[in-house]
Trimeric intracellular cation channel family protein
Amino acid sequence: MLHDLFTPSVQHALDLVGIFVFAISGALLAVRKNFDVFGIAVLAEVTALGGGLFRDLVIGAVPPAAFTDLGYFLMPLIAAGLVFFLHPEVERTQTAVNVFDAAGLGLFCVTGTTKAYDYGLGLTSSAVLGLATAVGGGVLRDVLANEVPSLLRWDRDLYAVPAIVGAAMVALCIRFDMLNAWTSGAAVVTAFVLRLFAMRYHWRAPRAWNRRSSAREAPEKATAQ
């Protein structure tokens, strides 16, 4: 089904762009945490490939694509090298990185859902794995960097919700036999735009009503990673 939506060359190119941008975000966090060059490379690889690797292991697509395509492995290293030598310049383009990250989020939640369904999972399970594909690398990145994952923090702009919407749209299109290049593209764009709006207007998920917590809001940061 996935190859019916995009040609293999287009799919591969889109994957590499998404992997590169996710790797940039991982490498930048490593620099902020004062990691050495090895730590920067590890965080870049984990952020870029973690979600897809988890998905492939769950659905039985082994060996995972991250280990069968050298480009998937090398692209995060290229991003890590770029950040290692030019991180002040990369930091200044953080807005652009966030925009591309949002695009990668939209793309991966759609392709992850579609691939999971191709391997025989039900619609709900496929959508869950689509979400995991999109956000799994960021969760592993934050855990390795000894931080609470951004998508679990109430003081961060919505990140998982746009991916949930995109994955749910794909599942519904599959259910009603409407999945094609146009509808899958619409799901990508919807997740992408929702994430951009969340960053622009600082949309956040609601917390429990009548909560009585002593936790205080962390200092505001630019955007969720």
About this structure: The chain has a mean pLDDT of 90. Residues 8-32 form the longest helix (25 residues). The chain has nine helices and no strands.
